[in-house]
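Re: your question from the hallway

Yes, I did run it. Sequences:
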Amino acid sequence: MAREDRTFLPESFRCKGCGKVTLLPKKVCPDCGSTEVELYTSSAKGEILNYSTIYFPPENYKGREPYTSVLVRLDNGCKVLGILEGEIRQLPSESKVTIACYNKDTGELVFSLD
Amino acid sequence: MPREVAVIGTGMTKSGKSQVPSWDLFAEATLEAVNEAGIEVSEIQGLHIGNVYSAFTENQTNISPKVLSAIGLENHIPCIRYETACSSSSVAFRQAYINIVSGMYDVLLVGGTERLRAVKGSITQQAMATSMDGTERGAGLTFAGYWAFVAKTYSRRYGIPLDNLQELLAKISVKNHFHGAFNKNAHFQNEITLDDVKNSVVVASPIRLLDCCPFSDGAAAVILASGNYAKRCKNPVWIEGSGQASGKFLLTEHEDLSLNPAITKAAEDAYKQARMGPKDIDVSELHDCVNIHEVLCLEGVGLYQKGEGIYSAAEGKTYFDGETPANLSGGLKARGHPVGATGAYQICEITRQLRGNFGGKRADNPHIGLTVNVGGTGTVVTVHILRKD
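Structure:
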């Protein structure tokens, strides 16, 4: 899979007024009040800010537990949630990751450790 | 001066597992509240009720007139249902309060009802999951996972190793079960030990099963009345402050998960109305859906400085005989969490603490009580301050 291909990345949105980047679009920027929000260049890479191993998954992840839920700051500044592929392990802080797979329909976002 | 408003009656069913539909549960709680208030059902001028999941778990929408029908209160009074996840019934309470402050009504029936355990656990879990953002749910987040991120952020921010944090959190669960053991309406009326918590299964690391509350069936009802009306009743409990604020909907948009500014804002508004501060609070009921959230509530309303709430139970301060008694009902952990009714349980419990008729451990002659009820992942927060007559 072409990992740098935009079609495989989640969209991000950026406020033209103050530069705030969010995963979901907003009509008004909560930080500066600007109504100019643009689709923003996405990033395939980022770093893990926080993580937790999920043993009791939601219905749509049944059978995949345990898995590691990760909070990642992408290189474009957008914070996203996803899961980390591979075995459960202790992760050093600020581990670098790359998007391995993104399903726009379900919102599933899988990262692999660099 | 805004118009005075008081709680004049309270009623609660036992929280736990019910064979009875949510509307009949609420009717049962209503009769207890009406009896306690010493009024006739026919004096009620409107119904404001919280309920979240009946569409999923009981295949029933339009629940507010269904509740009127179950009570037999069919004299054309208005009714409305509120849904803000776990804070639904305290939001209903607040809106009823504002209705009476406006001068349009004098006596309202308020509360919440929920039935979660009558259906398969998977249905309840799917229903509960809809209260968080669909995008984040799609990315594999669970409620326990959310509180795991909060606990880890707290651990990092205050330099408390995770092992120590888990131990301190376990002491909150032990404390809440201790109080729950004395509350005849609690879902769990048993004490637990630190080892019970430590040995319980991990749900979302570092959160274990006994760090979390159960989901419960239950209903709680309150009779609210205007000042002139309430003065004719025995032991009215006055509403001194009512604050409500909204937090970030998405986990990814929180700047610091160890704080919830919405709790602080709702508390500031309530304190300002009451012309009081944290030092005036004698007893509180807090939203401990997971024990780390009791800490965020204690710190958010200013009962503890940031980074200090975590030690409250370990130092005995939040026990019934401590400096800041909290969750003497057992909290969500032991009283249980009938989601759309939880906020109304808190109001009933604080009212009874102040009146001295709470059926469990009581604070030492409290005059002022506070509730914190939080919907979803910190998204809709209410803070109420009540005063003994």
